[in-house]
Amino acid sequence: MAEVYRGLWVVAYRELLRFTQDRPRMVSSFAFPLMFLLIFGAGFSNIIGTLTPGVEFMMFMYPGIIAMSVLTNSLFAGVSIVWDREFGFLKEVLVAPISRTGVVLGKALGGSMVALGQTIVLLALAPFMGLTVTPLLLLKLIPTVAIVSLCLSSLGILVASRMRSQQGFQVVIQALIFPLIFLAGVFFPISSTPDWLQVISKINPLTYGVDAIRQVFLGDALAAATAASGREGIALGVTLFDHTMSAGEDLLVMALLGIVLMSAAIWAFSRQE
């Protein structure tokens, strides 16, 4: 057990240190969500206006942008595995007196810490978009983002464990990112899409992460909008078998999926030689 904890904290610290020292990666990771905020948020907010009573387009989209930034940072948590393999450092990690389970958990934790840091930066920009951020919101949002990020980091590590080059990893991750983003209800309510697209969206794990973050972020406004949706607006939540998912239920789905993905990532990484 001591080897697991040692590997966890050492690897997590290394991942965080690597991110802070990689300025191009830092700039690009912040520029990506900001670009979508400016293009989709500022560009379409005046055209679309209010989606449903009490919820304007910017209010709806901002939590989705947070979830999108969590996705990109979390999936790229696995890139260091590929980098270490290419440059031979992975062999040193594998023969070091630390648990391979600790290495995987450390990679996931490091990716989660990076995602949390970027979330805080995005929340600091929220007042400039006309949105209010309170200390209570932060207390609720941080554990929500952590659960979502750990789940998605496990997916990135699982993919990386089978990759032999950074180019191949980048291609696979890019192929995953955009379908996950556009099918998760980041930019539009999935209830307003055709039935076949709703089915695909509900299979997408990020959908539940987006919905959980949105419910925490919007709180009472989203609850009121959901109640009014049957009369005069669009349903903004995720509905399964005529049941509207709560934030807790969304996080339960993400946590269960995260356990499965983390177990698979640990198994795949343990087979590395």
Please tell me about this protein's structure.
By secondary structure, the chain is mostly helical. The protein has one domain (2-270). It contains twelve helices and four strands. It has helices at residues 2-21, 23-48, 57-75, 79-86, 89-95, 100-125, 135-160, 166-182, 195-203, 205-218, 220-232, 247-270, and strands at 50-52, 55-56, 239-240, 243-244. The strands form two sheets. A two-stranded antiparallel sheet has the order 1-2. A two-stranded antiparallel ribbon has the order 3-4. Strand 3 (239-240) and strand 4 (243-244) form a beta hairpin. Helix 1 crosses helix 6, helix 3 runs antiparallel to helix 6 and helix 7 (135-160) packs parallel to helix 12. The mean pLDDT is 78.
Compose a concise summary of this entry.
This protein is mainly α and 273 residues long. Helix content is 77%, strand content 3%.
Largest sheet: 2 strands, antiparallel
| Share of helical residues | over 70%
Order of helices and strands: HHEEHHHHHHHHHEEH
Rg value: 19 Å
Structural category: mainly alpha
Total of DSSP H or I helical runs spanning 4+ residues = 12
Shape: globular
**How would you state the average pLDDT, rounded?**
78
Number of domains: 1
Q: Which strand order spans the largest sheet, edge to edge or round the barrel?
A: 1-2
- Note the quaternary state here: single chain
Contiguous low-pLDDT stretches (5 residues minimum) are none
Could you give the count of β-strands? Answer: 4
Strand fraction: under 5%
Distance between the termini: 22 Å
